[in-house]
Amino acid sequence: MRGFDILPQEIELYQPCRSSFDCLVHIPHSHCDWDKRVCTCQPYHVTFNNTMCLPASLLGFGCILDSQCRMKVPNSHCVNGLCDCESDHIPLRRDKCLPPAKLDDYCLNDRQCHMASSYSYCKYIIPRVYGKCKCPLGYLVTDEGKCLPHLGSECEKHQDCEEVTPDSFCQRSGDTAYCECRPGFESSSNKMKCQPILQIG
């Protein structure tokens, strides 16, 4: 009689089932999909080799598959057995991977702005909640939406200074570095350019 058909000794995912117990006995975190009458993984679990249901993971938790991470945290993947954000995103708590934020985009922290423009920062509209990416006072905003330092502004590399002010460079002083005129040049009175030092005599 069909009502007493015997199920196979070992059940895999997507094979026929009569109840969730039939699936669970062989595959933890599985159940019987009543519409299709086959074993599938429970919500927030992903299929692995049709023999396992792996739990979805948050950032910093264990994983085998990228899909375990992405199920709970978009733009994440599995790296060395742990869920982490993709290289062009930054983590926020354990449940978000934030994309780069350009100037005037909404942001949740400074790092999100730095990814799009290294000198920009998140100017909070609601403190410690959200804001918009802005350039610090005294920095130039380029046509490409980048913040670049003027003379006397903090800098990271020579080309950033020189792009705004020819004949300037990034001079380290203690723990910080500032844009200064190269040897043989001096700052103009308005500090907008470097001009050759006139040799008298």
From TrEMBL:
Domain EB: from-to ranges: 41-97
Any Pfam family hit = EB
Name the domain of life. Eukaryota
- TM spans, by residue? none
Question: Known InterPro entries for this protein?
Answer: EB_dom (IPR006149)
Q: Which PANTHER family match?
A: ECDYSONE-INDUCIBLE GENE E1, ISOFORM A
Q: What is this protein called?
A: EB domain-containing protein
Native source species: Stegodyphus mimosarum (African social velvet spider)
